[in-house]
Amino acid sequence: MDVANLEALNAHIVQRMDTGIIALDPTGRVRLINRAARQLLGHLPGGDGQALGELSPALEAAYEQWRAHWDSNSGPLAGDGAEFLPRFQPIGRGGRNGTLIFLENLSEMRAQVQQAKLASLGRLTASIAHEIRNPLGAMLQASQLLGEADYLQRGEQRLVGIIGKQGRRLNQTIENVLQLSRRAPASRRPLALDDWLQAFAEEWRESLPPGLTELHLALEVDPARGLFDPDHLRQIIDNLMRNAVDHAGANGPPTVRLACGTGSDGRPWLEIQDNGPGIPEEIRDRLFEPFATTSATGTGLGLYLVRELCEANQATVTLDTEREGACFRLHLAAAHGRGDAE
């Protein structure tokens, strides 16, 4: 194999690597950028010969910081495609021949970790179903039969009711854990979020129970396109909607606001906000952890499930503490192009 063929082979290998790679010359201009790096930075045109700051001002700032210290690596950066972690490697002594920049896709890494966690959870829940759920079912059936007996005194009926209520709560906790373990890998596809959210709102209005006829559902949508598994997104929004409905109304008529749009960074977002009392400050730091709840009847797994599904789809969910009530915002990966949206 001659030198020209070997050089072409090396370039092909670099372009096919999953890690983003950018090669800079000693002046900081791009001499090579592979496909993975383009995807992380947002499918930018050009590349060769460009200044790094034209591709990503944030990455250029991290590069200059590294050059100033030579041992200081940047923290995570947000690209148009996903969150990534840059690592810098000088070529030659003191970088006199240039610099290699490696971009690690943190969103993809988290998704892989998430799939491994779900696999481990599946093995755990197989034991839970056998060791806890089966005897719990027998206890609930026995308490129901006992509650139908006509010889119980009022105090005894109250105790039987407590057994049934707490047993059902424990059964719901087990159901939520089992639901996590059965989660299929995310099948992300491009979604027109404005159309999807309007369809969801219409369907949700039609399914409102009679007791919620006074609930006001406000819809604010701007064109936005994101990558997400539609089944997972429906579970997330439905879960957050139920939480919002349970707490809305502390500041006027019960109102839930649904909104979507595209941020200045190019990433699409979804918001769900209620006009309730908001999330207590003492629980905010562990809000998305298992069994964290302020409700006497809640399992504390709903928001944990929301976070897990978001991570499986390379998305994030945060609580906006500056807004009225509870306001949850999802940041999704951007979908490029318009012909394949659902």
UniProtKB/TrEMBL annotation:
Annotated keywords: Phosphoprotein
Molecular functions per Gene Ontology: phosphorelay sensor kinase activity
EC number: 2.7.13.3
Protein source organism: Sediminicurvatus halobius
CDD domains (UniProt xref): HATPase, HisKA, PAS
Domain Histidine kinase: 127-336
Gene3D superfamilies: 1.10.287.130, Histidine kinase-like ATPase, C-terminal domain, PAS domain
InterPro entries hit by this protein: HATPase_C_sf, HATPase_dom, His_kinase_dom, HisK_dim/P_dom, HisK_dim/P_sf, PAS, PAS-like_dom_sf, Sig_transdc_His_kin-like_C
Substrates-to-products reaction catalysed: ATP + protein L-histidine = ADP + protein N-phospho-L-histidine
Annotated protein name in UniProt: histidine kinase
Pfam short name (any one): HATPase_c
Domain PAS: 6-42
Superkingdom of the organism of origin: Bacteria
Class in the EC hierarchy, top level: transferase
Keyword match Phosphoprotein: yes
